[in-house]
Design goal:
heterodimer; A: Rossmann fold; 2 domains; B: mainly alpha
């Protein structure tokens, strides 16, 4: 039986004694973002990267920058080129063309120097079946030139203290992922790479891991992650790049992408007033009104639509028994930009 | 730089190996069992005075068992490397400041220690259960065995590079390595093999390992086996160089 992992109380920041003692970890992460975005320099620069496997072009003309202190997400369906892009940046693959700089280093020529300063979690990685949790952390801590952070403390922060003597093969999926996060953080890295971190986890473990990732950001680290889960990107990332068929389609904050590509708004309400439809059609910005069984779906564009609908309801004294709005999200942006759902 | 993490990784790999009792027993137990069981059978069935029997019991069987030790170690390496590759363990280890050579060196050290331990078990068990006393220049023979293992482990890396999946690692390795014993000069002197087989035997590394092990077990001086040592060194250099080119990390 696995005891469900609960994130630490309060703001989900991981506090590592001895590191950044002066950093104010209770600072609201959302506030932090705003000033990071405009003032922080970029720590990863990717420009014109192309990588082919045989005749298959995995990524092509990929360019973007990741700013210090942000959570940057590369999002797209499986096979879009996310992992290839990330592994080129980590120095595990060499691009055929293009330039990459991470923390001012060339990932290929300065591979070991770079490895010392970054933390990596690979997609679908395993460890030795019978390695114990503490042994893995201890081994990893010995590999870095930088002063490693306290392993026991890290395990405690990640809720793995009880599992420190457990073999890797006996851990649950969520515990394995948390161990991989521990290994990615043990050298107190400046940039953390997380590839499909929550794939295959149940929603509860997923949320707990999101909190951990926010905690990494709260300590001033930069996080670069890939995901094919739009909800994850939306809730976690400060900025996202949408990638499909090896090309980046657009890059921005999730909300900006939604505003830019999906201005549609939908209101669904229930009323017995059969004459309401004619009022609905006069609302500014409305494009379609559809009714089924006394439920009305009102579609239109612009942020004002919901306000206008409410205004119309109160002005015409239309009795309403149900009211909800549907706002577009990244999923819709993806559909709009690529013509298909990310799940297809 | 190559030393960073080497001892810790080696120590962890030893512990991990011992945590799989069946695998440990198979790797260490099989050569020792062959040594003891065949030794007793041969000792009982055949007239002890027969020349063939005494030569087989005195040198042939111990060297055969030693070869099995070498091959067990190499097969174990092939299996582990292919499992580690398939599971992404090699890739994960590479995404650290760890040098690739360090990762592979750790495995070579573990296998050499395994070889030495198996030889120790064999000699100790032999003292008690082997039909004739085991009198052998132990330090020299252990060195010869480790040199042979080291050389043939490099073939193991080559095999590990070509096996498609971990499932096939053990069988493919076995198919490549075990038949080499047949023409290695252990049962029939290489010189008396038919010309075609003779040529094959000359290019197979096990032939030189057998020459070395037989000689040292019988008390030869190292200097009379310079050719075997040189051949094993060539095998090591060539296989290591080719592996460095073709080895797949994922």
């Amino acid at each position: 039986m696995e005891v469900p992992f609960r994130p630490l109380a309060g703001v989900s920041s991981i506090d590592f004694p001895g590191t950044h003692p002066s950093r104010d970890i209770t600072l609201d992460p959302v506030d932090r973002l705003h000033d990071c975005r405009t003032t922080m320099p970029s720590v990863i620069q990717v420009s014109g990267v192309r990588k082919t496997y045989g005749s298959t072009v995995a990524v092509d003309e990929v360019s973007f920058e990741v700013n210090e202190g942000e959570i940057f997400g590369l999002i797209g369906p499986n096979g879009a080129g996310k992992t290839t892009t990330m592994e080129c940046i980590e120095g595990l693959r060499t691009p055929d063309r293009g330039a990459i700089t991470v923390l001012g280093l060339d990932p290929f020529r300065h591979a070991y120097k770079l490895q010392d300063r970054i933390g990596v979690q690979l997609q679908q990685a395993q460890l030795q079946k019978r390695i114990k949790v503490w042994e893995a952390v201890d081994l990893w801590a010995s590999l870095y030139q930088r002063q490693a952070i306290d392993g026991d403390n890290l395990l405690e922060q990640l809720g793995l203290t009880e599992k420190r003597d457990t073999w890797f093969m006996d851990l649950s999926g969520g515990q394995k992922q948390r161990l991989f996060i521990a290994l990615a953080l043990i050298n107190d890295p400046d940039v953390v790479f997380l590839d499909e971190l929550t794939t295959g986890l149940d929603p509860q473990s997923r949320r707990a891991i999101w909190d951990l990732v926010r905690g990494i950001r709260a300590r001033g680290k930069t996080v670069f992650l890939t995901t094919h889960l739009m909800e994850e990107a939306e809730k976690l990332c400060d900025r996202v790049a949408i990638i499909e068929h090896g090309r980046i389609i657009d890059i921005d904050r999730p909300q900006n992408l939604v505003d830019r590509h999906c201005p549609e708004r939908t209101v669904i309400l229930a009323t017995h007033d059969l004459s309401a439809e004619k009022w609905f059609r006069t609302i500014p910005g409305v494009e379609a009104v559809v009714s089924t069984d006394l439920r009305w779906t009102i579609r239109g564009r612009g942020d004002d639509l919901v306000t206008e609908v409410i205004h119309c309801l109160s002005e015409n004294r239309i009795p309403v028994t149900d009211f909800r709005t549907i706002l577009p999200n990244l999923e819709d942006v993806f559909l709009k930009l690529t013509g298909h759902s990310i799940r297809e | 730089m190559i030393l960073r993490g080497l001892w810790k990784l080696t120590w962890i790999e030893i512990k991990i190996f011992l945590r799989e009792p069946l695998g440990t027993f198979g790797t260490i137990g099989f050569p020792v069992l062959v040594f003891l069981v065949f030794g007793r059978l041969a000792g009982r069935r055949l007239a002890p005075s027969s020349l063939a029997t005494s030569s087989f019991i005195r040198v042939g069987l111990p060297v055969l068992a030693s070869l099995l030790i070498v091959i067990s170690s190499v097969l174990s390496l092939v299996t582990i490397i292919s499992i580690y590759r398939e599971g992404g363990i090699l890739k994960r280890l590479r995404a650290t400041p760890l040098r690739p050579q360090t990762i592979l060196t750790a495995h070579v050290i573990v296998k050499l220690m395994l070889t030495a331990a198996t030889l120790a078990v064999m000699v100790l068990a032999g003292k008690r259960y082997y039909p004739i006393g085991v009198h052998v220049p132990l330090v020299s023979f252990a060195s010869a065995l480790l040199i042979s293992t080291w050389s043939i482990l490099s073939i193991g890396f080559l095999i590990a590079s070509i096996v498609p999946t971990a499932r096939f690692a053990q069988p493919i390795g076995a198919i490549i390595l075990y038949p080499m014993i047949a023409v290695s000069g252990l049962f029939t002197p290489v010189e008396s093999l038919p010309p075609a087989l003779h040529a094959v035997a000359r290019v197979l590394p096990l032939t030189y390992a057998v020459g070395l092990l037989q000689g040292i077990w019988s008390g030869d001086a190292w200097s009379s086996h310079f050719r075997d040592l040189a051949a094993l060194a060539v095998v090591f250099v060539v296989c290591t160089a080719v592996s460095a080119k073709v080895f797949r990390w994922e």
